[in-house]
Amino acid sequence: MADLNPQQQLEEANVRNLALIEANSKLNDRVTNNAAKENQKIHAADAALHRDPDGLRILAETCRVDPVSATADSAAVDPGGGRCDWLRLPGEVEENLYDYALKANRTRVKRNECREWALGLQQMREEWERDQDSR
């Protein structure tokens, strides 16, 4: 670069800057698209959970101090699949758990988005430094 006149140095720097801007734009697009795909999966899973008529359940014995023995009439209440020893959580608790899970998944996606972006920037910097060293 020392052999170039100031105008040529400026033009070369502009070319490098435009290449960095383009690379950064591609990185941002990739990260944003990946996050959008993950968010779609999260919302689909959340919707599927809410559609489940069986809801969230907990072992009946977890809720009682004394163990619950199976009785003949508990089989009549069995919704199928041997779940008579499971109790459905109250609606508010169920909704709060769904909400916490959704927020946790969104946080995970945002963390992954930030990590992917930071790693991409680090890679761009390393490539830029290699390019500078080769000059």
Topology:
Elements lengths: L5 H46 L5 E3 L14 H4 L8 E3 L2 H43 L2
Antiparallel strand pairs: 1-2
Structure explained in plain terms:
The protein is mostly helical. It has one domain (36-133). Helices cover 69% and strands 4% of the residues. It is built from 3 helices and 2 strands, in the order αβαβα. It has helices at 6-51, 74-77, 91-133; strands at residues 57-59, 86-88. It has a two-stranded antiparallel sheet. The longest helix has 46 residues, at 6-51. It is rod-shaped, with a radius of gyration of 28 Å. The chain starts with 5 loop residues before the first helix and ends with a helix.
What keywords describe this structure?
135 residues, two-stranded antiparallel sheet, 3 helices, 69% helix
> Tell me about the biggest sheet?
2 strands, antiparallel
Overall outline: rod-shaped
Number of strands: 2
User: What order do the helices and strands follow?
Assistant: HEHEH
- The percentage of residues in β strands lies in under 5%
* Count of the separate structural domains: 1
- SS-based class: mainly alpha
Our measurement of the CA-to-CA distance between the termini, rounded to an integer number of angstroms, reads 7 Å
CA radius of gyration is: 28 Å
Mean of the pLDDT scores?
A: 84
Q: Specify the number of helices.
A: 3
Helix content: 55-70%
Stretches with pLDDT under 50, minimum 5 residues: 71-78
Report strand order across the widest sheet: 1-2
